[in-house]
Specification:
This protein has helices spanning 11-21, 36-45, 62-66, 85-90, 103-119, 169-175; strands at 2-7, 27-33, 50-54, 74-79, 95-98, 127-132, 135-140, 144-150, 153-158, 162-166, 180-184, 187-190, 196-197, 201-204, 207-210. The protein has 220 residues and is α/β, with parallel strands linked by helices. One of its GO terms (molecular function) is DNA binding.
Length: 220
């Protein structure tokens, strides 16, 4: 699934992108912005795969904004001016959509972005970002001892602090690498931080986490 946002100072253009995006099954359009600065602030906090970006905007042009994005972020320029095409490809844009563009052309652009994403080298991440009441906090997997679920919240116990985030345990399981395993329906532990394994519990530093019968085999 491609995670995307759109930035365009024309609301009508954003409505067209939203309508087209709703018909592309592998595209998740997470937000749209008519203000380029607001869009840039969003990108500082959230990771996306693709940005549909208008070029001719007030305050900051799409060309200048694209140069500020992380290298791995794919850019699809959307504009009514064909003169910008050459400059767009100089910035290694994934594609260039000339307004007004039909669904078929939009879909082709999305497919190109999907292909580019699949060609990018995949590296196993060494961290995750945890959303808390104070914002998103970067946490290294090496600092994370265990996670505990409580209703719609998860507690992340780090070596030197504790963080609480509103999320499902299932989403967390899909995010963590394979050396994090369940020892209990409410606990996920970092096997690399184990100090001692007992029959009904494990020790990670000064902390003790239970092992239920149904999960007893994961540490063998």
């Amino acid at each position: 699934m491609l995670k995307a946002i759109a930035i365009d100072d024309e609301n009508m253009a954003l409505e067209v992108i939203k309508a087209h995006a709703g018909k592309v099954p592998f595209l998740d359009l997470q937000a749209v912005f008519s203000d380029a600065i607001q869009g840039l602030e969003y990108l500082k906090k959230e990771e996306v795969d693709v940005v549909f970006l208008d070029i001719n905007m007030p305050d900051i042009s799409g060309i200048d904004l694209a140069a500020m994005l992380p290298k791995e972020t794919l850019v699809i320029f959307t504009t009514a001016y064909s003169d910008f095409a050459v400059k767009g490809f100089e910035l290694e844009a994934t594609d260039y959509l000339l307004k007004p563009f039909p669904l078929s052309r939009f879909l082709k652009s999305c497919q190109r972005a999907q292909e580019w994403k699949e060609l990018q080298p995949s590296e196993e991440p060494d961290h995750l970002f945890i959303k808390t009441s104070e914002g998103k906090i970067k946490v290294s997997f090496d600092d994370l001892l265990f996670c505990e679920a409580a209703g719609n919240y998860v507690t992340f116990q780090l070596v030197d602090q504790k963080l609480i985030s509103r999320m499902t345990f299932k989403d967390l399981e899909n995010t963590l690498p394979e050396h994090f395993v369940k020892t209990h329906r409410s606990y996920l532990i970092n096997k690399r931080k184990l100090d001692r394994i007992e029959r009904h519990q494990v020790h990670l530093g000064k902390y003790v986490v239970p092992i239920s019968v149904s999960f007893s085999g994961v540490l063998e």
